[in-house]
Design a protein that fits this description.
Blueprint: E1 8-12, H1 13-23, H2 37-53, E2 57-61, H3 69-74, E3 83-85, E4 93-94, H4 98-101, H5 104-114, E5 117-119, H6 126-139, E6 148-151, E7 167-172, E8 179-182, H7 184-191, H8 196-206, H9 221-231, H10 234-243, H11 250-258, H12 260-270, H13 292-302, H14 305-317
Helix pairs in contact: 1-2, 2-14, 5-13, 8-9, 8-12, 9-10
């Protein structure tokens, strides 16, 4: 890790380039006709984030494994609806639009030429990489912690919110020009939960169809939040179920009993890892490109000169 201890900006990169792909017209193309809307959109997002939030450190967190085996082994339906085809020895290939898939290697090349740290870990999602960086910051002595902003369109990462560091989530509403700042006060206001871990416990009860997580049938978000508020945690809810606590209605107890197998493994799937094997990372915000010649070549080949210029100007402005 860098010895610089200034504010850290963590990007859920796939979440952002998917948003860029759907938010920027596919008519934005390279000179050879290849679509580059996701590349240009992502570069412009990063430029805006750097100017608006002025981090000293920046990491583009990466899905080296979009559907980790340890989560699929726990709950087979996890992201199963997004599998495009079975691939032996893996949990399947993700269903990604062809026009986006061709842009992902370009994004990797551009980040490398710029010198922006891109970090993924085999067997883990970007969420887990982000969770590990956050855990490292939380573990530091109080006087040595730096603020962390996580930029993602994935509500799962709300579980990392922690006012003591602070750790916030910047959630795009309409692109990165319009970000909803998620802190503990916002979690209380919007979801009636009192902490990031409480959000994860609520999410396990509620489930998430977009990730193939069934949740507890009949227990929606409001009821899940109320149960976590009453009993403090998912473990507290399950202890109340097993003890026949009168605070649970007969229907709630029955629903929790029917979902016992799911609830036993749900935390492993819902909670992001905090101990992914992320090595030492130079996360300093680059002031000058790591490989200027490669950057010039990439800008010319893919028609990215204007977006590259905006991002380089942004990086220079906060130096």
């Amino acid at each position: 890790m860098s010895s610089e201890r200034g504010p850290l900006l963590l990007l859920d990169t796939a979440s952002l380039y998917f948003r860029a792909f759907y938010g920027v017209p596919e008519s934005v193309r390279a000179p050879d006709g290849t679509p580059v809307n996701a590349v240009r959109g992502l570069l412009d997002m990063i430029a805006r984030l750097v100017v608006d939030h002025r981090p000293d450190r920046l990491v583009a967190c990466w899905d080296d494994d979009w559907r980790p085996a340890f989560r699929v082994e726990a709950i087979a339906s996890y992201k199963a609806h997004r599998v495009a085809r079975e691939v032996p020895g893996t949990t399947g290939a993700e269903d990604v639009p062809a026009a986006l898939a061709v842009q992902v290697p370009v994004i990797r090349d551009v980040l490398a030429a710029l010198g922006i740290a891109r970090v993924g870990v085999p067997g883990y999602e970007a969420d887990d990489v982000i969770g590990t960086f956050v855990a490292r910051e939380v573990a530091r002595p109080a006087g040595e912690r730096s603020s962390v902003d996580v930029v993602t369109g994935d509500r799962d990462l709300f579980q990392l919110v922690d006012d003591s560091v602070p750790v916030r989530v910047l959630y795009p509403v309409k692109g990165v020009k319009d970000l909803e700042v998620i802190d503990v006060a916002r979690l209380r206001e919007k979801y009636a939960v009192a902490s990031g871990p409480a959000y994860a416990d609520m999410a396990a009860l509620r489930g998430d169809p977009s990730d193939g997580l069934p949740g507890v049938p009949g227990i929606g978000e409001k009821t899940a939040a109320a149960l976590i508020a009453r009993y403090g945690s998912l473990d507290g809810v399950l202890a109340a179920r097993d003890a026949g606590d009168p605070g649970l209605t007969a229907t709630q107890r029955r629903r929790l009993e029917v979902a016992a197998d799911y609830l036993r493994v749900a935390p492993l799937v819902v909670r992001v890892a905090s101990d992914a094997p992320v090595g030492e990372v130079d996360d300093r915000l680059p002031v000058t490109p790591a490989d200027p010649d490669a950057l010039v070549a990439l800008a010319g080949r893919w028609g990215l000169t204007s977006s590259m210029t905006r991002l380089l100007d942004a990086l220079t402005s906060v130096a």
